[in-house]
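Troubleshooting: if your tokenizer reports a length mismatch, compare your output against this known-good record of 571 residues.
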Amino acid sequence: MSLKICVAQLNFCVGDMPGNAQKIIDAARTAYQDGVRLMLTPELAICGYAAEDLFLRPSFIQACDDAVNLVARELAGLKGLSVVVGTPTNGDEGQNGLAGKGLRTKSVAVQQRHNAARVLCEGRIIASYAKRELANYQVFDERRYFAQGQGICVFQAGGDQAGDDALSIGLLICEDAWFEEPARLAKNAGAELLVVINASPFHVGKGGERELMMRERVLATGLPLVYAHLVGGQDEIVFEGHSFALQADGALAGRAPSFQENLFLVQAERAQAAIKLVASTDPDRSPEADLWDALVLGVRDYLGKNGFPGAILGLSGGIDSALVLAIAVDALGADKVRTVMMPSPYTADISWMDAREMAGRVKVRYDEISIVPEFEAFKASLAGEFKGLKEDTTEENLQARIRGMFLMALSNKFGSIVLTTGNKSELATGYCTLYGDMAGGFAVIKDLLKTTVFRLARWRNAHDPYGTGSNPIPERIITRPPSAELRPDQSDQDSLPPYDVLDAILERYMENDQGVEAIVAAGFERALVERVARLIRINEYKRRQSPVGIRVTHRSFGKDWRYPITSKFHA
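Known-good structure output:
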């Protein structure tokens, strides 16, 4: 017995059910011509992931049903091909007596919908499965939308026309495979091979974590496993693909490329009652390569799926805007990226020179618009109100807000989205200006600590993954001490601890929920830890007003950070 399997590792768009259905149809036809008789699509492929409160709309679920039926009709003539399609349903799997639309009033929402999969073959739905284990942590919020499934799904794929020598396939969805029971029940029901359809957002190291967890599942059941994962960007989250297959003994049988669409082929062969998988293997990757590709894909899909013609950003001559520019060029191409240098009275000459040099290296449009006239005009208008008072952060923020106003005006006039350039260290501590450097539509490096910004800049200078040119960032931008240049001789370290120390505290406190005492016990100065914790606490109001940005760590200032603005609790 031999069964050729295709993992349709594709980039779907949320809410584009006709377009998503056509991608599945096209992939199935291509795979069928290559001898494939089982094709897997990712979790909720028909509607895209994650559709959030669209799942609450009956018309959305109906459109998903219509799209699944379209796929079934269009593929009806492909004899012997089974296609697993991830889709939300109205809870009509009939597994737990909870069929129907559930209860929803202005005060109560009890959903009976399922995060499900349909198995299509020759125009019919031959099997259905509802996800049993609903993820409800980090960015996941599935219990808001779905009820737990209670059933098991084992179906036959391959074999001759009579179904002889077919392979028994046990179907799981994402979180199901992180628990023992669903896989064990599938094996007890006769499964010879486990297939897992998945949509799990990227963070650094997540691909390796998945392979390790699935290895546990394989070793516990003694069954080989094929893991089908989504690829693409959706608002703040990115899916990296990285689909794979494991042998029954846990060995890696093959792995699809990361961060790109791929029809990943796996050959399942039965020899003396044992199933062996054969597939190609994409090599291991560095964390920096994953980070870079995640950021590039996040920018490309956010602009592409939302119809923006290009991007514009303020290029200051500093490391943050330089890194964002390099990412944007790799994502969009130089012709779709515009930069503006907006000098103030405190802008150093080397900032001008470095900004010009980098724009020339990456071949983007570069303009200079001085903010000095506007800054002086604002100060003159406020002179009466500020009489007798020293200049302070008020005047610094005026400069940032003038720049933000210029960028947004250009965005409004030409349609390009403003990419903000603030990093996670700044956002955590409030070292940013509302309606100033925070003004914009997409925060590319919102989830990168400053030390990671420097590391990634050096990595990009040493690598050219998209063929847009090596060494895009002038060395002086990387080695020069960071400064907002909003007052004479300003340095970031005038207001913040050294970034290596600050980022170490932020990682412990913000990303890993360690308390002040635990961080102090790890060797950090108490006064400094308490100061950083206070800065994080009092700047929540700023973060609530920041643009959406790409999540690349396991804890970002996005959906997986939900803290009250008003709170007296000190961790």
